[in-house]
Design a protein that fits this description.
The protein is α+β, with helices and mostly antiparallel strands and 376 residues long. The protein has helices at 2-17, 40-46, 109-140, 146-172, 363-375; strands at residues 35-37, 49-51, 54-69, 75-79, 84-89, 96-97, 102-107, 188-192, 197-202, 209-210, 215-220, 226-232, 244-248, 257-264, 273-280, 292-308, 313-315, 318-324, 329-335, 337-341, 344-347, 358-361. Belongs to the membrane fusion protein (MFP) (TC 8.A.1) family.
């Protein structure tokens, strides 16, 4: 009986000696929702690197957009002040025109009537002037009454006023009254371009009758085009007259145009945007009014607390970094970010990271571990 008990004791001791050791603790044993704990193997695979927040000069870059615009003095709407029929034109949108160039020919019977009236009054004025001078001489010698002299004077002045008014009307349709004779009366007149530029719109066709208020053509002088940017209210304090920027289009993002701020609007839209007008330093014919443009405005250097961009992770629309609580324990901490330059980003609340060790490489690995922990 003693032998049987001895054998059972030996078997129990052998079984206990062959029991396997307990495995290493699970990877996330912390109960805190924003803390991740790595075991030695995970820490090695994550290739975590740490650092501290650093102060350095950083210049901000404000990214905005807008459109190419033309000042009012460089845009011209061509109308026919007295109306008429469009007889001919060669204009097409995009066509170049020179100042003083004939761009259309108009026709109407009222042009003939105005020229006839001018020449008729001119002839009457010549007679009235002679009669006025004759009556003046007679009145001075008491050979005629004051009434007759005054009637002659009134007739002369009335005709002179009418002639001057008709001359101004003729000038509206580009007829020089002083050169008008009975031999060059015409039913057709020309419209001339008042600027050198390009045709932006053609609103009429041959044979159409136009009223004085109708716009026949729209011309643009592009030599003074400018960039009209829309800037958020919070960025306005960083801008100043004379500040430089670079603009580019979506079609050619690599082609940058140097610009200078010439005007900052004092009015805000309902979306808290202000207009900032910029001048192109070099004109390019590819820059046409209405073209959508992007712009990058570099603001002045400031001394700021910064971290590498790689140190930050985006989670649920917010920015976070991981602060090392120990060699294998890390706490996710929210930060407020600002300007970015040369791979470093400004931290606007550096006090939460002061004298703390921060993960500057491997932050996204920690974020994935933390998410997996939350899903368990």
């Amino acid at each position: 009986m003693k032998n049987i008990i001895s054998i059972l004791a030996i078997l129990l001791l052998t079984a206990c000696g062959q029991q396997k050791p307990a495995p290493e603790a699970a990877e996330n044993t912390s109960t805190e929702a924003d803390v991740v704990l790595l075991n030695s193997k995970q820490l090695k695979n994550a290739a975590i690197q740490t650092g501290t927040i650093e102060d350095q000069n950083i210049s901000g870059l404000i990214r905005v957009n807008g459109n190419i615009d033309v000042p009012p003095q460089n845009m011209v709407s061509i109308s026919m002040p007295l109306g008429g029929y469009l007889r001919s034109t060669k204009l097409l949108p995009g066509m170049h025109v020179n100042k003083g160039e004939a761009i259309a020919e108009m026709e109407d019977q009222q042009y003939i009537q105005m020229q006839q009236d001018y020449l008729t009054i001119k002839a009457k004025l010549e007679f009235a002037q002679r009669e006025y001078l004759r009556q003046k001489e007679l009145n001075q010698s008491q050979a005629s009454s004051n009434k007759v002299f005054q009637q002659a004077e009134a007739e002369y002045k009335t005709l002179r006023i009418s002639l001057g008014a008709l001359a101004e009307k003729l000038s509206l349709i580009n007829i020089v009254a002083s050169k008008l004779t009975e031999r060059n009366i015409s039913r057709r007149i020309n419209l001339y371009s008042p600027i050198t530029g390009f045709v932006s719109k053609v609103n009429v066709n041959i044979g159409k009758y136009v009223n004085p208020s109708d716009v026949l053509f729209e011309l643009v002088n592009p030599t003074d085009i400018h960039l009209n940017l829309r800037v958020f209210e919070k960025d306005l304090p960083s801008l100043a007259i004379g500040q430089k920027l670079k603009a580019y289009s979506n079609n050619a993002p690599d082609k940058k145009y140097d610009c200078e701020i010439i005007l900052i609007s004092k009015d805000l839209t309902a979306d808290h945007l202000a207009e900032v007008h910029c001048h192109f330093e070099n004109y390019d014919k590819a820059l046409i009014p209405g073209l959508y443009m992007n712009a990058e405005i570099e603001v002045s250097n400031t001394r700021s607390s910064t971290l590498p961009e790689e140190a930050l992770v985006d989670f649920e629309g917010k920015q976070f970094v991981f602060v090392a609580l120990s060699q294998s324990k890390f706490k996710m901490t929210e930060v407020q970010t600002g300007k970015i330059e040369s791979g470093r980003i400004e931290i606007k609340n550096p006090e939460v990271l002061k004298e703390r060790t921060i993960v500057i490489r491997g932050a996204y690995t920690l974020l994935m571990k933390l998410k997996n922990k939350a899903d368990e």
